[in-house]
Amino acid sequence: MKSQELQILALNAFPGGPSAVPPDVAALIERRRRSFGAGSVLFYDEPLRMLRAEGAHLYASDGRAYLDFYNNVPTVGHCHPKVVEAVRRQVGELNIHSRYLFDVAHDYAEKLLATFPAPLSNVVLTCTGSESNDLALRLARKVSGGEGIVVTQTAYHGNTSTVTEVSPSSYKNGAPPPRVRMVPAPDPALFGNDVAQGFADAVKDAIAAMEADGIRFAGLLVDTIFSSDGVYANPPGFLKAAVDVVHAAGGLFIADEVQPGFGRTGEGMWGFSRHGVVPDIVTMGKPMGNGYPIAGLVTRPELLSAFCNDFGYFNTFAGSPVACAAALAVLEALEEDDLIANAARVGRHLTARLKRLQGRAPITAVRGAGLYLGVEFGTQDGPAPQIARGLINGLRQRGILIGAAGRFGNVLKIRPPLCVTTAHADELVDAMEAVLG
Amino acid sequence: MKSQELQILALNAFPGGPSAVPPDVAALIERRRRSFGAGSVLFYDEPLRMLRAEGAHLYASDGRAYLDFYNNVPTVGHCHPKVVEAVRRQVGELNIHSRYLFDVAHDYAEKLLATFPAPLSNVVLTCTGSESNDLALRLARKVSGGEGIVVTQTAYHGNTSTVTEVSPSSYKNGAPPPRVRMVPAPDPALFGNDVAQGFADAVKDAIAAMEADGIRFAGLLVDTIFSSDGVYANPPGFLKAAVDVVHAAGGLFIADEVQPGFGRTGEGMWGFSRHGVVPDIVTMGKPMGNGYPIAGLVTRPELLSAFCNDFGYFNTFAGSPVACAAALAVLEALEEDDLIANAARVGRHLTARLKRLQGRAPITAVRGAGLYLGVEFGTQDGPAPQIARGLINGLRQRGILIGAAGRFGNVLKIRPPLCVTTAHADELVDAMEAVLG
């Protein structure tokens, strides 16, 4: 697993050293090295200096426009006028913490909670998906009385101490501790036609193994579109058997919606609903404020109460008027711009074109839902991360931003702002053909 | 400790149940209960619905202005025009993650790092103080090879799983795990005239006790003005002996500057510098973006490298162009408005007036530095949290916002925006006299 993950990190990353970049970019790279040191990771063999962004495009210092098929945070489009206006209005008026009352927090919370099935009626606002998943683990452990968490093999759920433990893809050396158990991603290539049963059995075995080691089971945490594992979305409903196993074992099911949430699958707001399950805890983040830091956790009131009996929880910046105003504008823009339907429509078109490309390129699978797609590359020698890396840098040279994922780093990860059009999708596939050719 | 902390939480908090608030506030309280459930904590017996804020004042739905002596986040003043303008400009132009290059990150990082002593030359940007302290603990544990952390008895350092362990004040039930050891706050009432030696001895004993239990020492983590412990700032330099003990034992010293940092002490940018020490890691947060979520960690490059060899660390929203633009505007406003000198000047005036009040009220100590002051209340029966609670609600009725801290919840915590004037300070003390009278 270690060497695989190194591959994933290396796939998108600027390798350092001499690079054929213009002097302005070289100067920034040097400033970056001095101030940010080893913590700095840049994208691309030739990193980009960005100046502005709008809709589905970023504009770089080389004078070119870059079509964005990488960034899911600016989900309603870079610098969406509605979100920009909401932030501009609120930041000059009131920006305080949530121990005072202010209206916009409630306007937002109610609109957000209305998108969830009834039992999930309480929300905790945080600043980042990492904070949401960290809190979800605290709740699950408190409520279950257990410690053991099951995650997928190449999962990424965030960056705190505790969330890193459940993010195998963050380990360059070492491995998660015994209280974290890994199962394979729900890959049809592994489990065959009955992914549901295969994945449920893997979860059941992982629970049995941890309990045999004296570790009580607390819950299953998965990204409901398994993005860092390589994007596994189908068939819809396959998660239900695993969730039944979790509940039978006394654990909680935590749905991490940081990646698939807010309409990206084109089939409603949340990835879990495609699977016909109701999670005990749902976490969300990235696209929630279109770039303004806001994230959250939704759960049943009694779970939250059980936790709050033992601990105070307060988050200074979370749910501020500006954060809520930005997030409310995102929900409104999703509706007004009809972006969930657009994700479905453009996703279908893109999938069809990618499947046609599959016959003429070393593509072993085209997967996903809506505007979260994975294109897996392989040859007779097995997974082909070098093709993914070549595409990432080749598409950058042709003015398109994209990334990769998966256990072997051989899956092109497609998750653009939801405002992209079928013409943009054509531009992507045309460019892929040119690079692959 | 449990019952003490319950007192602190209860001191500021809305107790729930019937409250003499206007209908608009009552309606919001009910909406809040429904959406946020047990996670919701409001201030005051009669919570406030805020509409707007400017400078040192918040304006509530009751038509009144409230002078702010509570909030340190809007440190250069609520809705400071310079910060508002920076956010408004940047949010419409570019707001992306830090794996692309953009200029403002470097303009900010360099200006920030210039305020630190030379060995501390790398910065990691995060979104919250909690994320900064969580990462600091990961670094300290990785670099030291130990697990054991020493903190003060009523410390608060944030809200992640791992940071809650080192925040004894967050526990309503239970206590920190064995790898976290507590020492008393550096209170002259406990340690006498030689606080430095007393506190250093307490740290030394805590390290010895954990090592006797087979737990290897990793580091000492303190808020350098000990705010949640009740505000202990003097004499300057008292921390040095404890830091020497930490280094002799092979541990790291983590200075949590979330509370005292960014000029609040009136004696330079950072609380640690008053003590003549150079920390191994410095964490910061709250005032950094004047309300825009940004936080950070500053350390030596070799410590960061050691950590990054084993783990990838990436934080999606951290160090975005908007976050850096807001934070850069804060540094500029601190200079242009001469706020560190103002903190010193107003702090001196306020301290003198509080000390005069001390002769005529049940005040057992007036402590602090600059615009972080603590006023401790006690009677012949001991600590008097009921006086602090009476003042908090009494000052709210007189249009002044304030809070409390300390092991017994009997310390009025004074930490206003740094733009308050001596006239505002007079207004506070006059109102305190009226409430106490």
Features of the shown structure:
437 residues, disordered N terminus, seven-stranded mixed β-sheet, homodimer, alpha/beta, globular, Aspartate Aminotransferase, domain 1
Can you describe what's shown?
The structure is a homodimer of 437-residue chains. Chain A is α/β, with parallel strands linked by helices and 437 residues long. The first copy, chain A, has two domains: 2-76 and 338-436, Aspartate Aminotransferase, domain 1; 81-336, Aspartate Aminotransferase, domain 2 (3-Layer(aba) Sandwich). In chain A, 39% of the residues lie in helices and 17% in strands. In chain A, the strands form three sheets. In chain A, strands 4-10-9-8-7-5-6 form a seven-stranded mixed sheet, with helices on both faces. In chain A, a hairpin with a 2-residue loop joins strand 1 and strand 2. In chain A, helix 4 (103-113) packs across helix 11 (321-336), helix 5 (129-144) crosses helix 10 (301-308) and helix 12 (339-358) runs parallel beside helix 14. The longest helix of chain A has 20 residues, at 339-358. Chain A is globular. At the A-B interface, helix 2, strand 1, helix 3, helix 4 and strand 4 of A face helix 2, strand 1, helix 3, helix 4 and strand 4 of B.
Biggest interface, chains and residues, is: A-B, 97 and 97 residues
Main sheet overview of chain A: 7 strands, mixed
Helical run tally of chain A: 14
Could you state the oligomeric state of the chains shown? homodimer
Report the portion of residues of chain A in β strands: 15-25%
Q: Got a strand count of chain A?
A: 16
CATH homologous superfamily label of the largest domain in chain A: Type I PLP-dependent aspartate aminotransferase-like (Major domain)
CATH architecture of the largest domain in chain A: 3-Layer(aba) Sandwich
Unreliably modeled segments of chain A: 1-8
Mean pLDDT of chain A: 95
Run of helices and strands of chain A: HHEEEHHEHEHEHHEHEEEHHHEEEHEEEH
Total domains of chain A, how many? 2
Keywords (chains A, B): Aminotransferase, Pyridoxal phosphate, Transferase
Pfam families (chains A, B): Aminotran_3
Family (chains A, B): Belongs to the class-III pyridoxal-phosphate-dependent aminotransferase family.
Cofactor (chains A, B): pyridoxal 5'-phosphate
